[in-house]
Amino acid sequence: MSQELKELKGTDVIQGFVIPETLFGYTAFSLMIPPYPMSSALFLGWNFGTTAALMQKVWSPFYTDITGVDLQEPPENLKPEKFFNYSADKFVEWCDRKFDFVCIDLYNGNVIPDFVFSDKFVDGIGRITGKMLAINLTFYNWIDFMTYDKHFIPDACKTVNRDKVMFMVPKVVISNGQAREEESEQKERALIQ
Predict the structure, then answer these.
(1) What is the DSSP string of 40-59?
(2) Is 70 in a helix, a strand, or coil?
(3) Bridge partners of 166?
């Protein structure tokens, strides 16, 4: 079996690739790359760090401070500088840092853990996400993630084959942007008068 296909687990669900460019564009990993460079990124569900590696290749001139979280230790050569061998729900609960980009790629086979849909977890994700959230929701429906509406607004939905990814923007970012726009309009009106 080739090195890049060693990543297939018992359920025949691709968990990641040692060579990140494998099947580029045809899996959720490439769909989860943010649309612009981020200064910090948290990957909940690290596995082999495929999405992070692709993000670094796409946005290579820009440095991104990357943190990975997973229940399983990755091979040493695929581990980020900051890696936490924790359950994602526990990490989010005690994390006091905000990340520009948060990527949720949490699966046990083809099942997303129940805690990903809990109010407590979603509130925590809302607290630590600065600019953008990406969620791998392959095997699920868009509607399954309605709990995220409390803190996020869907920004983009991407699909390829059976893989699905949703990008969301924190409502606080949207409201701050609208507040700045309204303030700017008020200043323009004041100048005109």
Answers:
(1) EEEEES-TT-HHHHHHHHHT
(2) coil
(3) 135, 157
Domain ranges of the chain: 3-192
Show contacts of 177-184: CB within 8 Å, 24+ apart. Answer: none
Token pair in block for residue 96: 């006091």
Q: Which two tokens stand for residue 79?
A: 């581990």
d(CA 54, CA 60): 9
Q: For residue 136, give both structure tokens.
A: 């791998």
Q: Just give the CATH number of 3-192.
A: 3.40.50.150
State how far the alpha carbon of 111 is from the alpha carbons of 11, 13, 108, 140, 178, in Å: 11, 10, 5, 9, 37
Classify residue 45 as exposed, middle or buried by CB count within 10 Å of its CB (0-12, 13-18, 19+).
buried
| Amino acid identity, position 16 | G
Determine if the pTM surpasses 0.85. Answer: no
99-154: per-residue pLDDT in tens? 999 999 998 888 899 999 999 999 999 999 999 999 999 888 878 889 999 999 99
